[in-house]
User: Which sequence fits this backbone?
């Protein structure tokens, strides 16, 4: 039996009822988060919950629960579902009301749902690296919001998959922004480059951990955008996200990095990242 989060309760999956007039369903009018669980423990939950509230605020939605309450619910859900290593997904929509673009009145309450998934760490990718491909970034201009509107990301990821690639590296004109569901980094002559945390990217929680890890291993970071040509000339390229952690990219559209093997700095970042992971209450 599996349990879901539904507003302020943990219920059996089949008890969750979603209204077809929900604005999440009709407009993608909501925000979400994905939090990794290692050995039964949530990783960087504080940062994810904080970003959830910030995303909601940016779309002028008030989450009707305290952060403490939400933390409590997420922990309960992970416990109930006995998640070992996997993730929690949760989202909130502006609620259900007769379809109208304009915000509904106060009588319409936001709808919070969530679930967990057992999902092993993609260790083969960490070891062997993955391929990526450039895709034009046609998303909106508020990519700093973790919005439920993911059509731009969906189309880019699908294109990448059809080209046999793990991820789409998005670019606006010549400027590389981020991955379709990840952040992108290049390392050149011992400096790590990644797009600044502005409205063109989501400031990944993993990105923030990686920036800390880089400082700890003596790898200088420049939060500067790369052009496509600069990215192709990097010594090492990395993709990161909650589920991808520190994944080396060894090929982009036929350009091979490091002889097709993860580079030394990438390895060091992976090792440093591992030191942050909860060893877990069930380990
Ligand atoms: N950029 C985009 C567009 C993302 O969707 C994500 C995460 C990231 C960057 C990386 O952010 P985190 O490091 O905080 O995960 N996307 C989530 C998703 O949709 N599935 O897994 C992670």
Assistant:
């Amino acid at each position: 039996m599996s349990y879901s989060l539904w507003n302020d309760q943990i219920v059996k999956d089949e008890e969750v009822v979603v209204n077809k007039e929900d604005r999440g369903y009709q407009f993608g009018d909501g925000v979400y988060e994905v939090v990794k669980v290692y050995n039964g423990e949530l990783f960087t939950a504080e940062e994810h919950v904080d970003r959830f509230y910030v995303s909601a605020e940016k779309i002028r939605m008030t989450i009707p629960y305290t952060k403490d309450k939400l933390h409590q619910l997420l922990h309960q859900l992970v416990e109930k579902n006995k998640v070992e290593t996997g993730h929690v997904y949760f989202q909130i929509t502006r609620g259900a009301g007769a379809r109208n673009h304009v915000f509904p009145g106060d009588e319409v309450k936001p709808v919070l749902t969530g679930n967990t998934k057992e999902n092993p760490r993609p260790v083969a990718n960490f070891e062997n690296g993955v391929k990526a491909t450039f895709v034009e970034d046609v998303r909106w201009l508020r990519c700093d919001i973790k919005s439920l509107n993911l059509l731009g990301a969906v189309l880019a990821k699908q294109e990448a998959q059809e080209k046999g690639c793990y991820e789409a590296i998005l670019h606006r004109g010549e400027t590389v922004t981020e991955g379709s569901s990840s952040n992108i980094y290049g390392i050149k002559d011992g400096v790590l480059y990644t797009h600044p945390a502005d409205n063109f990217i989501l400031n990944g929680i993993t990105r923030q951990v990686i920036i800390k890890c880089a400082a700890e291993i003596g790898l200088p970071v420049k939060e500067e955008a790369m052009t496509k040509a600069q990215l192709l000339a990097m010594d090492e390229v990395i993709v990161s996200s909650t589920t991808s952690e520190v994944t080396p990219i060894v090929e982009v559209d036929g350009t091979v990095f490091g002889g097709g093997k993860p580079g030394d700095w990438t390895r060091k970042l992976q090792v440093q990242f591992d030191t942050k992971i909860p060893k877990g209450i069930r380990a």
